[in-house]
Design brief:
Helix content is about 0%, strand content about 30%. It is mainly β and about 60 residues long.
Length: about 60
């Protein structure tokens, strides 16, 4: 999921969000200065429904 490869990662990605319906997982990570951070898989529930739009609220706090 996402753009770039381990050989050529993008310079900066604030949030990469990968939704895997088959496994009911939401994967999150960021790329800072060309280095991908660890994947975060922790989620208390799976909030997505296939083919339905969703919103991601964001805050700088």
């Amino acid at each position: 999921c996402g753009r770039g490869t381990s050989r050529e990662p993008p310079p900066n990605v604030a949030l990469e969000l990968c939704v895997r319906f088959r496994d009911r997982q939401v994967l999150r990570r960021a790329c800072v200065s060309g280095s991908w951070g660890d994947l975060d898989r922790a989620a208390p529930f799976f909030p997505f429904i296939r083919d339905q739009p969703f919103k991601v609220p964001a805050s700088d706090r």
